[in-house]
TrEMBL record:
Pfam families registered for this protein in UniProt: 7tm_1
Keyword annotations of the record: Cell membrane, Chemotaxis, Disulfide bond, G-protein coupled receptor, Glycoprotein, Membrane, Phosphoprotein, Receptor, Transducer, Transmembrane, Transmembrane helix
Sequence ranges assigned to domain G-protein coupled receptors family 1 profile in this UniProt record: 62-311
Gene designation: LOC100922206
Protein name: C-X-C chemokine receptor type 2
Length: 357
């Protein structure tokens, strides 16, 4: 059972570290190891609640619109659209868990172990499926632009199996955390949703973390950097920037994902190095890592509501497709739709017009 240090830590720290399961305030590796004192600075729980509610509402609205636009334009759906459709589903499912986490900041974890496992699963699957889907988009763009390969990417029935494989792999990568998540009672302040590894499984916990970080973050990141590096070089050499305006949206989506999730994962890597004693362990470093986890995890949660904003402000085709839906249902006039020029069709990997980019 996980024991915390004080009521102040309950109010200001445990909410974030419980959510990630990577808190540095874990049981010491031996009974002789002295625990570190509580930190002097932490995020206020009411600020976190406001962020959760804001992200939930914005994500619910934005990702629902993305689903509407892509599903409505079934005939013109491209390979990239199918990946972005699955990305919106992942973000939407994760957003649905945020009200539960927000309520737990006030009431403690009163919802039992099954719901603890479920909402933890949604967070993990959202992250892993997100980066894996973006890696698949990078491969699709690489084949279509660098090698001018259409035969493979035109077979959209393969894309469905790829997406199914991504969901399965995301579930497998999420299992190490979800299997050990439980409703635990702290001696100091009640119930929390946390991982119950016991006191003698620190090495196993580190092995699982390293494997999931490598397979679910490092490897897809390397694939994206490789594919987009060669894709950008090809576009610049061929002066094809105007013909591939969709790449601006894709690059923006990838950049925002990295800005939101890369800091959090770099902190986890640092924490892993500390726990394996590759860097010197100290209370000051544990406190710094704990504070960094709290901040960077909130940044990661913001990501679930940002993609629709990117489509709306950068994606001309997304705006036009949405206005077409409104015009078809009489919500805007055809004259208003005519004022927005139809975007040109270039660079679709499937040979169809993307309805999102």
């Amino acid at each position: 059972m996980v024991e915390f240090i004080s009521d102040e830590i309950l109010d200001l720290v445990y909410d974030e570290s419980n959510f990630s399961g990577y808190s540095t305030y874990l049981p010491p590796e031996s009974d002789d190891a002295a625990p570190c004192p509580p930190g002097s600075w932490n995020l206020n729980k009411y600020f976190i609640i406001i962020i959760y509610i804001f992200v939930f509402l914005l994500s619910l609205l934005g990702n629902s619109l993305v689903l509407l636009v892509i599903l409505y334009n079934r005939l013109n759906r491209s390979v990239t659209d199918i990946y972005l459709l699955n990305l919106a589903i992942a973000d939407l499912l994760f957003a649905l868990s945020l009200p539960i986490w927000a309520a737990s900041k006030v009431q403690g974890w009163i919802y039992g172990t099954p719901l603890c496992k479920l909402v933890s699963l949604l967070k993990e699957v959202n992250f892993y499926s997100g980066i894996l889907l973006l890696a698949c988009i990078s491969i699709d763009r690489y084949l279509a632009i660098v090698h001018a390969t259409r035969a493979l990417t035109q077979k959209r029935h393969w894309v469905k199996f790829i997406c199914m494989g991504i969901w399965v792999l995301s579930l497998l990568l999420s299992m190490p955390i979800v299997l050990f998540r439980e409703k635990l009672q702290s001696k100091d302040y009640g119930y929390v949703c946390y991982e119950n590894f016991g006191k003698s499984t620190e090495k196993g916990r580190l092995i699982l973390r390293i494997l999931t970080q490598f397979c679910g973050f490092v490897l897809p990141l390397v694939v994206m950097l490789f594919c987009y590096g060669f894709t950008m070089r090809t576009l610049f050499e061929a002066h094809m920037g105007q013909k591939h305006r969709a790449m601006r949206v894709i690059f923006a989506v990838v950049l925002v994902f990295l800005l939101c999730w890369l800091p959090y994962n770099l902190v986890l890597v640092t924490d892993t190095l500390l726990r394996t004693h590759l860097i010197e362990d100290s209370c000051s470093r544990r406190e710094a890592i704990e504070q960094a986890i709290n901040v960077t995890e909130v940044l990661g949660f913001l990501h679930s509501c940002l993609n629709p904003i990117i489509y709306a402000f950068i994606g001309h085709k997304f705006r036009y497709s949405f206005l077409k839906i409104l015009a078809a249902h009489g919500m805007v006039s055809k004259e208003f739709l005519a004022q927005h020029t139809k975007p040109s069709v270039h660079g679709s990997s499937s040979g169809n017009t993307s309805t999102t980019l």
